UniProtKB/TrEMBL annotation:
InterPro entries from the UniProt entry: Thioredoxin-like_sf (IPR036249), Thioredoxin_domain (IPR013766)
Protein family (similarity comment): Belongs to the thioredoxin family.
GO biological process, one term: cell redox homeostasis
Gene Ontology terms, MF aspect: protein-disulfide reductase activity
GO CC entries: cytosol
Name under which the protein is recorded: Thioredoxin family protein
PANTHER family with a match to the protein in the record: GEO12009P1 (PTHR45663)
Amino acid sequence: MVLSVSERTFTQEVLESPVPVLVNFEAPWCGLCRIIHPLLLQFKAQCGEQIKLVGVNADDNFKLANTYRLKSLPTLLLVDSGIVQRRLEGFRGREDLRLALEEIKLTYINRSKIYNNSNTADLEYRSA
């Protein structure tokens, strides 16, 4: 299940999130949005709690669509600490999206492991 976010909840759920967020700007009439949805759910399952996945209906949230200058749907934004780190749009197909998601997953899961290991090492050092 993908968390649905609106203009009212965007700041709290995305910009202030303690974990990176993949924002899927979509619309009910968008055929490609429906096609990529299973890939996004698979991505979410593989990443677990290390990356949050949210959906934004671009038609119902016009201010957000304008703020992030959407040119086409779907548009995916990877937001980390309130800053857009990656923008994915203009997909040439499912494989194109799958490769981009795989790169994001590897980058953030590896970063999370390094961060967690350094915290563990720091705690072990302090307790010695």
